[in-house]
Structure formats: structure tokens, C-alpha cells
Amino acid sequence: MHYYIDVVDPEPHGESAAWSRRYAELQPRLVRALAATAGNYVGVEDAVQDAFAAALYEDPAQISNLGGWLYTVALRTLRRAQRRDAFARALRLPRGPVSASSNAR
Prior knowledge:
Layout: H1 15-38, H2 44-56, H3 66-90, H4 100-103
Helix pairs in contact: 1-2, 1-3, 2-3
């Protein structure tokens, strides 16, 4: 016998619902805009996710243009990742995060 418990509220309320609506509205636009700026989609969705995560820690009253703020944060995150990847390629370092287990050897 299996029992399933809904852990996630299917319909968010209050501030959560507002963020869900803003995310649904802005995420596709941000991905397209960043991909156009970067010339490809590599790392774009991760950068947009990171920007939304950063926005959750900010005071909403201090962000007058959420779309512009998210774009700026995502673009900086994307460029930082691109620089890090280019540096790693130049040094011929392995790509991706280093796990704690690989340092234990």
C-alpha cells in the first residue's frame, strides 16, 4: 500500500503567489534576452535561476524595476561563469565543481 502526501501547496498564496507569477512572466524573457546577449544558451538558465534566488534576499521595495534588476544580476552571473570557464580551459583544469571526496585523496 502506498500513501502519497502533498508536500507542496498546489496553489501558492500571498507573497509566494506573487513571486510565482513574476517568475512565470519574466523567466522566458530573461532567458531569451541573455541568450541573445551571450550568443548561445550555455549557462543562461542557471544564471536566471541564480538571479531569482538573489532577488528573494533583497527588499522588494528597493527594486524599482525587477526585470531590469534580474537581467543585470543574471548577466553578471553569466559573465562570471564564462570567465571562470575560459580561465579553466586556458589552464586545462577539469570542468565543473570539485567535490569534497576528490579532495580527500
